[in-house]
Amino acid sequence: MTSPTPSIEFFAGVSEQLSNVSLRQNKSTGVKSVLMTFDSLKAIEKFNSFTKQFYKNVRLVDSEGSISVAPSSLKFIFGGDEGDDLKRVECVFEIEREDHWERFMRFMHRYAEANGMGYNDNKKA
Length: 125
Description:
Number of strands: 8
Strand order of the largest sheet: 2-1-5-6
Shape: globular
Oligomer: single chain
Number of helices: 2
CATH topology: Elongation Factor Tu (Ef-tu), domain 3
Order of helices and strands: EEEEHEEEEH
Largest sheet: 4 strands, antiparallel
CATH class: Mainly Beta
Helix content: 10-25%
């Protein structure tokens, strides 16, 4: 049996393509946050958002199962001549528990490997 390809879904069965992810930690509280950026969303193309079940959260699916997270922020950024071209979508959520963070990182490693993404540590010296 093969493992499912890691996927990120806002709507049932509609896998989105992650463009970038930024991981942060609040120094005073220790709470970690994730900023996922998508250059486009398949869920809003071809009326997928009208024909598929909306999860009301983000589902991260891999060989371990599924993670369901509620975004603390979901921004749609538009541009273009008329201001109606979707430029990107930014999804932010927080992870407070260390075991949840570890599970998320396992997902991200699988997702990155399956989608040819790499890790870049941007810590300032």
